[in-house]
Amino acid sequence: MSRSYHRNGIGWLIASGVIAVATIIGLVFLIINTANLFGKDSYWFNLLKDTALLTVITSVAIYILRITVKLALSSLHLSRDAKEREQLSYFYLALIESKGITNQERISVINALFSRSDTGLLKGDSAPTLPTGITDVIEKVNNSECN
């Protein structure tokens, strides 16, 4: 899963670079090849029309670029999160094997493993811990195993 997110992140970074370069080249080409853009003999209406055209094109390109950069950063963040969860899983299994884990530590590790990942795409999106009802179920299962 980590590799998949990493590949997606690199793909979005490449797409962002292509969009940025294409936008710069397109705007330079448009400015150079528009005859009356900001010229001395242009009327105010033509000047306003050309300025509005450049503003709209630039705004749309920057908006698309912003989205692709967010997707790239989110994918790379999820890749790192998947790697951390994989290592935490190995650590948890090693603790269980050595029987060196208490019930409270087990609940903490399970909360960390199964909590939501923060993608960074939504503002105020935080990764909450498991609800207390689930930790109660885990404790009941552990208590029934002991009996």
Set down the secondary structure blueprint:
Elements: H1 2-33, H2 44-98, H3 103-114, H4 132-146
Would you give an account of this structure?
The protein is mainly alpha-helical and 147 residues long. 78% of the residues lie in helices and 0% in strands. The protein is built from four helices and no strands. The radius of gyration is 26 Å and the shape is rod-shaped. The model has no long low-confidence stretch (mean pLDDT 78).
Summarize this structure as a short list of keywords or feature phrases.
147 residues, 4 helices, rod-shaped, mainly alpha
> What is the radius of gyration?
26 Å
Contiguous runs where pLDDT drops below 50 for at least 5 residues:
none
If helices are DSSP runs of H or I spanning 4 or more residues, what is the number of helices? 4
**What does the overall shape look like?**
rod-shaped
Terminal-residue CA separation: 38 Å
Strand elements, count: 0
Helix content range of the residues, please? over 70%
Tell me, rounded to a whole number, the average pLDDT. Answer: 78
State the secondary-structure class: mainly alpha
Q: How do the SSEs run, as a string of H and E?
A: HHHH
Measured by DSSP, the beta-strand proportion falls in under 5%
**Sheet having the most strands:** none
Short summary:
The chain is mainly α.
